[in-house]
């Protein structure tokens, strides 16, 4: 039940935002728990954005994986 | 976008699996434990256990918040429904067995039970239908509790109240370590609970229990990476707290969510189905929000319910002591269409996850 799905913020209107889950699935969610702006990805759980996806960290994670694996191969 | 696909890249998965082989112990077995229904889904759905060496086992702990809500609290919801109150709940909660009946059975008998996507939808319903009383059955771990807190603090209408059944994950993890015969060697900590609570509540696991603990995301690569990171710690002879899910989880967690939670709720002891009472493991509305507490408002208090039916081994599945297919009822008397125990009900219950992907399990 702790399933949470990333969605892109399309419009922010006070405590509410319109988000896009992809392929045109739009929904209004509550964004009082996060700092967000149009274009951000947020993690949505039960109608609430619970965290903003940190794109820089996401890319760093991937490069970290690659590094770890490269080190392992030596 | 190309980078996004790396989270499910089969070649990357194979390479990590090779690393896992390399760091797996040469003799003896290690048992890693996750405590999240979504992790169990990822592991089972993608057949990740089949990529692990035979002596590296991943077991599922009490990670399904619907499964661990005790029958007594389902009974309270059923009683409210029978009093003519509209009971709103998550879809997962509908079929969880109470002592006598589930909310779905109460609905079939004429009670007004409605499934909502989130608590906001329930509040909205109450605003539209001012002549009815509404209760939101607030289940879930720390991931879900902040949304309940926001609505409770946001002055809901007078005809709205909460049946709070939220539970906290770290006390359940600590309980597992107390069960000596479980022999856990490392924790895969739940990513979305951690998005809220951050890393700090897990500090005691490496420090006090010398238990490697890695907070992990929910893509197959995330989970494999967490297994690798734990095995690496074990091979180094170190126990650390690490964050594999840094794209979401911050050290301090979501401070805004933690703040609303602490303003709305007090921490209290709570019963867990199949486990019993755990101190400081549940949330209740603070005194100043008592008017929104459905138990107070309608005088509904059930102390003891019938949690486990005779023959059902949910209590052992919940703590990871046995696998679903070791229960004699699994896929015989107990199926997704006709569940006997709570673990077969929720889409995140271990038995339900295994039942839905039974073919994958057999191959592995």
Structure description:
The complex is a heterodimer of chains A (74) and B (364). Chain A is 26% helix and 39% strand. Chain A is α+β, with helices and mostly antiparallel strands and 74 residues long. Chain A has one domain: SH3 type barrels (Roll). In chain A, strand 2 and strand 3 (26-30) form a beta hairpin. The N and C termini of chain A lie far apart (41 Å). The relative contact order of chain A is 0.19. The mean pLDDT of chain A is 89. Helices cover 37% and strands 16% of the residues of chain B. Chain B has helices spanning 10-23, 37-45, 71-82, 103-108, 119-128, 145-153, 169-178, 191-197, 204-209, 220-236, 255-264, 294-298, 314-318, 350-356, 358-363, and strands spanning 30-34, 56-60, 86-89, 113-115, 134-138, 160-164, 186-190, 213-216, 241-243, 265-272, 276-285. In chain B, the strands form 3 sheets. In chain B, strands 2-1-7-8-9 form a 5-stranded parallel β-sheet. Chain B has a 4-stranded parallel β-sheet with strand order 4-3-5-6, sandwiched between helices. A two-stranded antiparallel ribbon of chain B has the order 10-11. In chain B, helix 1 packs parallel to helix 10. Chain B is globular and about 65 Å long. The chains are: A alpha+beta (74), B alpha/beta (364). Chain A binds chain B through residues 1-4, 30, 32-34, 43, 45-48, 50-51, 53-55, 57-62, 65, 68-69, 72, and chain B through 3, 6, 12, 15-16, 18-19, 22, 36-38, 63-66, 90, 92, 117-121, 139-141, 143-144, 146-147, 150, 190, 192-193, 195-196, 221, 225, 228, 244, 246-249, 254, 256-257, 260, 346, 348.
